[in-house]
Amino acid sequence: MGTFTTSDGVGLAYHGEADDPVICVPGGPMQASSYLGGLPIADAIRLDLRGTGESDEAGDYRVDRQVDDVEALRRHLGLDRIRLFGHSAGGTLAVLYATRYPRHVEELLLVTPSPRVVGIEVTDADRREVAEKRHAEPWYEQAHAAFQQIWAGNFSAEAFKGITPFLHGRWDAQAQELDEHPRNDEAAGQYYAEGAFDPAQVREQLENLDVPTLLLAGELDVSLPPRRAREYADLFPRARLVVQHGAGHYPWLDDPEVFSAAVQRMP
């Protein structure tokens, strides 16, 4: 584990060491980066966002204000350009970094990213279409009932926990272990606070983003169904969309070899 200090004096931790790393930003939002520990990516360095993992607490967790934390890590590592990986809500932070510091981004890797930063809405109908493909799964009836509660307006923690199997291509013991990785709920509540970004402005900035970008979606991901992933990828001038067959929101767990091949360095 390494440590460094941000521009506002917060001590942050990172895990891994490499001369030419892939900087990996976790989702959650604000989940400890330990859940990314099994990523089949050579030279990965995982960043513990402020208030998570081994990093210090801070008073402000809004996502746009964490962009300079990533920049502080780049400087600490002495790198001119970085390959930047963002998963889920971490994709929002990665996109905001790339639009603020495009000259320092060699490649952008967005894995099942939240489309919230660009204002793409994933509708209940989108999620239902993907969820109903899982009708043969032994857990389907119970999980689908939880989804129906959410669609009816019940946004309880219990209902959201009930749909967890839909986030995985394989609902096995390894997938279930993800629940053991802690999240900073207070910080998560601030991550997308009002004023963090303007989706229209972000979309405009992406029009001129001269950065090779991979957007990897899961065929079975209810968080970012393939049709919305295509809409998202089309906003980038140099994006390649990969939809991993049989994968959910955590595609490296569903098929590590296929995932690893997809995220190899772009030519």
Structure, described:
This protein is α/β, with parallel strands linked by helices and 267 residues long. It has one domain: Alpha/Beta hydrolase fold, catalytic domain (Rossmann fold), CATH 3.40.50. The chain is 32% helix and 16% strand. Strands 1-2-4-3-5-6-7-8 form an eight-stranded mixed beta sheet, sandwiched between helices. Helix 1 packs across helix 2 (90-100).
Classify the fold: give the CATH topology: Rossmann fold
Distance between the termini: 31 Å
Mean pLDDT: 94
The H/E string reads: EEEEHEHEHHHHHHEHEHH
Number of strands: 8
Q: In DSSP terms, counting alpha (H) and pi (I) runs of 4 or more, how many helices?
A: 11
Helix residue percentage? 25-40%
**Total number of domains:** 1
Approximate strand percentage: 15-25%
Oligomer: single chain
Low-confidence stretches: none
> Biggest sheet, strands in spatial order?
1-2-4-3-5-6-7-8
What is the overall silhouette?
Answer: globular
Largest sheet: 8 strands, mixed
Main traits of this protein?
globular; Rossmann fold; 267 residues; 11 helices; eight-stranded mixed sheet
Tell me the layout of helices and strands.
Elements: E1 2-5, E2 11-15, E3 22-25, E4 44-48, H1 67-77, E5 82-87, H2 90-100, E6 105-111, H3 124-131, H4 140-151, H5 157-162, H6 173-176, H7 185-191, H8 199-206, E7 213-218, H9 226-233, E8 239-244, H10 251-254, H11 256-262
Helix pairs in contact: 1-2
